[in-house]
Amino acid sequence: MLKITSARVVVTCPGRNFVTLVMETSDGVRGVGDATLNGRELAVASYLNDHVIPCLIGRDAHRIEDIWQYLYRGAYWRRGPVTMSAIAAVDTALWDIKGKVAGLPLYQLLGGASRENVMVYGHANGVSIEDTIAVAADYQAQGYKAIRLQCGVPGLPSTYGVSKDKYFYEPADADLPTENVWSTSKYLRVVPELFAAARDTLGWDVHLLHDVHHRLTPIEAGRLGKDLEPYRPFWMEDAVVADNQDSFRLIRQHTTTPLAVGEIFNSVWDAKQLIQEQLVDYIRATVVHAGGITHLRRIASFADMYNVRTGCHGATDLSPVCMAAALHFDLSVPNFGIQEYMRHTEETDAVFPHSYSFADGALHPGDAPGLGVDIDEQLAAKYPYKRAYLPVNRLEDGTLFNW
Ligand SMILES: O=C(O)[C@@H](O)[C@@H](O)[C@H](O)[C@H](O)CO
Ligand SMILES: [Mg+2]
Predict the structure, then answer these.
(1) How confident is the model at residue 291 (pLDDT cuts 50, 70, 90)?
(2) Nearest ligand to the C-alpha of residue 340?
(3) Which residue numbers delimit the Mandelate racemase/muconate lactonizing enzyme C-terminal domain (predicted)?
(4) Maximum alpha-carbon separation in the chain
(5) Any atom of ligand 1 within 6 Å of the Cβ of 315
(6) Using one digit for the tens of pLDDT, what is the confidence trace for 90-103?
(7) Could you report the predicted ipTM of this complex, rounded to two decimals?
(8) Is 317 in the pocket of ligand 1 (CB under 6 A)?
(9) Sequence-separated (6 or more) residues with CB below 8 Å from residue 110
């Protein structure tokens, strides 16, 4: 039996906080798993340290499914972002270990490669349409086949997705939540202009995406989807808050613009109706927040039955450990759609040495056994945790709104 002999949680902040589970076994093989939940990192660290790790020691590391069921059903209090991020970290570390023991990259254990590489999308943003298009043109010159467009909204001091630094976007920007201001009417005017300008400049051989970030009502989303149809977006993401999955029926009645949702989902149950009724086209759940490789495969298989493709979340607050795991999943899953790729800083990449690489608008996980990523714990120790919150959002009249 391959016994789990130890497991520890490493919290580090190379420019932003990451939570990593490091698991060791009786054969000396170690695995890693991402457990980062932006703005709530210590909740997951505690869940792992105080409630999960004591139950792991002595278990057979090869029993990935049994351990997953033990941590999910055995918790009694099922689901939720903290629980499922903790389960994800254990699951990911176990798959890493299994790959290393087998001497195979993880994708080979998931059924092998279904494609040559993993198409990704970059993040062009700017305070104006012109700034955004200029950055998008640079991404296109770098070989990206898909680019997300987010621009400032005239009359608003800031908005989602627009960062001071063109190529790195980190929304958790303060020790207590910063307060952003939002106006749907101002926003709805600028996005169609942004896409019209993008098609004029970038042409039609590039996929263009947009993240609404939960800020519209269903009928407003129908309006925006219809306004964007002439520009053929690859997707319109998080058009509305998905608590009420019925909302997407109304959007579907008004527009053929493809819809993506799910980066904040943590189990298949969050998406069941959306998938079954084909109310979305892409499911954004990813390894770190949706219970790991084991559960993400279930979500993808269910989605495949209903023509829904994957579009895993891949923002900077998901560590290179999650990115590596997602890329192995992306390379193998039959109904792959696209992978988000917000590049990490050099500081972060130094803490998490990895074998995935970018070329020609795509990433490949590499062929190192297991995940092909690790954490340099000595370097990580140089970056102590620094509390940081995601912002909150208010309407211009002060009403608390969705960020
Ligand atoms: O699609 C995306 O990447 C965004 O929605 C994220 O930047 C999201 O805001 C962050 O991951 C939140 O921590
Ligand atoms: Mg998003």
Answers:
(1) very high
(2) 1
(3) 129-258
(4) 63
(5) yes
(6) 999 999 999 999 99
(7) 0.99
(8) yes
(9) 293, 297, 328, 329, 332, 333
What Cα–Cα distance (Å) separates residue 330 from each residue in 160, 235, 353, 390?
27, 18, 20, 28
Other C-beta atoms closer than 10 Å to the C-beta of 31 total 29
**Amino acid identity, position 389:** Y
Q: Which amino acid is at 199?
A: R
| Residue indicated by tokens 């391959």 | 2
Q: What domains lie within the chain, and their CATH numbers?
A: 4-105 (3.30.390.10), 109-368 (3.20.20.120)
Q: Is 160 a catalytic residue?
A: yes
CB proximity list for 250: less than 8 A, separation 6 or greater: 218, 219, 222
| pLDDT (0 to 100) of residue 169 | 86
**The pTM is what?**
0.98
Helical (H) or strand (E) element with 195: helix 184-202
| 170-to-21, 144, 215 alpha-carbon distances in Å | 22, 21, 19
Any atom of ligand 1 within 6 Å of the Cβ of 247: no
* Residue identifier of the C-alpha nearest atom 9 of ligand 1: 171
Q: What is the DSSP code (8-state) at residue 329?
A: H
User: Is the CB of residue 167 less than 8 Å from the CB of residue 228?
Assistant: no
Q: Which ligand approaches the C-alpha of residue 318 most closely?
A: 1
**Cα–Cα distance measured from residue 309 to residue 275, given in angstroms and rounded to the nearest whole number:** 10
Which is nearest to 58 in space by CA: 102, 2, 96? 2
* Phi and psi at residue 377, to the nearest 5°: -65, -30
389 has catalytic annotation: no
DSSP bridge partners of 122: 147
N-to-C CA span, the chain: 47
